[in-house]
Write the structure tokens for this entry.
Amino acid sequence: MTLEDRIRDELEAEAADLVVPPGSMERVTRRAERWTVTVRVAAGLAVALAVVFVVALVTSPGPTGPVAVPADEDPETTVSTDAAVESTVTTLPSTPDAAGPLTAVAGPDGIVLVGGFGVVDHIDVGPVMLAIPDGRGGFVVQIGQSASSILWLAAPGSDPVEIVPADAGEVLRLQEVTEIDGSPVVVYTARRSGPDLAPEDASEELRLLALPTGEETTLGGVGGYESTVLRVSHARGRFVASKIAEGYTWFEVVAGSDDGFSNPRTEQQAADDFLVWVGHGVQSDDGATMAFLRGSPRSEAPFTFVVVDLATGAEVMAVPVAGAHETVITRLEWDGHTGLVSLVDGPAVVIEGGAVVGTLPVTGIAAAALSGAVSGANSDTGDGPPRRRLRLRVASLLGGETRRPEQSASVSSELDTAARNPLGVACGSATPPQCRFAPGGETLPSCSSPLGRRPFGGTGSAPPGRGGRDRRELVNHS
Amino acid sequence: MMSEPRYEERPSFEMFYRHERDRLVRALSLTLGNSTVAAEAVDEAMARAYARWRRVGSFGNPQGWVYRVALNWARSNARKTRRERLGAVAEHLLSDPEPADPGLLYWISRLPGHQRSVVVLRYYADWSIDEIAEALQVRPGTVKSRLHRALAELRTFEEVER
């Protein structure tokens, strides 16, 4: 008797012994009616919650509330009094060679730009969930978590443009901004579900949108019923998704070639050992390494920030991140040198050289910048591949003059010896500092921002009811 | 990846329910190891099938749809209530001491859930590779490899026991 025959016999025998709870057509039809109502109510609630969430974000006053400014007051002197911003600006080490990350942190008070020496600028666009520098001086922004359109702020002072409109049946998730053929490209996922679809008929697509042409490309399905992606990362034509389905988590090349991609966690491995959770995978721009978070949802131990060499599959870094757990990690960034782990209700943790070196000075979701993302200066990108940078762009932070990397040390030294305000925010001596935050909303003399602080909701095509329509009443840009 | 239709013409929901309900409960019980949960899950999936029978009934293998929805529902429900994967039986058995004379069924219960599913559907429900692939929404090649690995593991288990 073959093994297959024995399996058949054993299963048949076991099934015959099973006591099957009786079913009834009547119960099923009653349940179907209840289920149909539940789906409709749930869909209605989801829409209502999304509206409430967006309204809450838009009207959020921040920890201490916005400062109302008379209409005739100079808008440049209007600075948020966000206590979180003020109280933590010195968290990062500020030694000359620990230049640290430059990144955009999205939160209830807009976008805060952070450099190695603390907060560099604040763009008051109202509450945002995620803001990713586009590498050309602007930002791609998502305001709410669901039912929220994706906006583009071409330059900090310009009016936002809705580049991906919200669709009632779709949940959009901004993933990252990358560069393809020399142009910035928005990577996002669109999940289709809702009252017209059964949960098991849900679908999720990976899409690209080129800036500024608006050309859209769909790369195919990446999720469905009870499966979704936590993050999609692009490097050199390869899109890697961190996927989750039925409790399994794994990585998958969802578009582009998987040549040279030594997958640290395949679907098969995930199914074989579902107790290990992996996610938020981000490739370095050269596609050589990938960082991700790993842990066990069942364990109290913090999750580990892991970096693997994608050519060999070798693990080159593993750093436990205190407080990091499946449910509190919001985003991960990795530029091949520096890692940032954003956590709910806390500042992002900075990892360099195999250790946690500090936290960002503000709470919010941190996103990496493409080259020259802050000032638009792109002088050293050349014809090479796009580079996502977390490292401090010292020159651009000081007012637009771009310096070569070999000059960084001297510039850093200059910064180190420059006047520093009591909060430790660097004030370059050669050029005016761009912006500083001071206790009680005080603005330091000569503080001006080339980026401006224009809230959403100006005269452009900002969607009504989103962003800073209310805030426009607080800040006069005339 | 469409399998051959099991019904020559579209069945009424009532007929489908009468023919398939108990067999699906048994198949899911063998997968999950819990007939109460399996019955609950199949009834839930049947209710959803009933609510949209015009569409589900037109599928070549509606019982595959019901099995998948029931399996997903059971796992999702288990996660919601215990934040644990179901596979509860396998875990339960893993934590239990091995029986003195473990039978083949014991070793099947120790297979990972995704392998157990294909073994049950192939050898108990007697579904084709294509039908299983369609039900689990994986490629036929994936079903074959899972089946192959499951059989290899069962052989290994038995050899080690001898």
In short: Residues 49-101, 371-478 of chain A have pLDDT under 50 and may be disordered. The two ends of chain A are 89 Å apart (CA to CA).
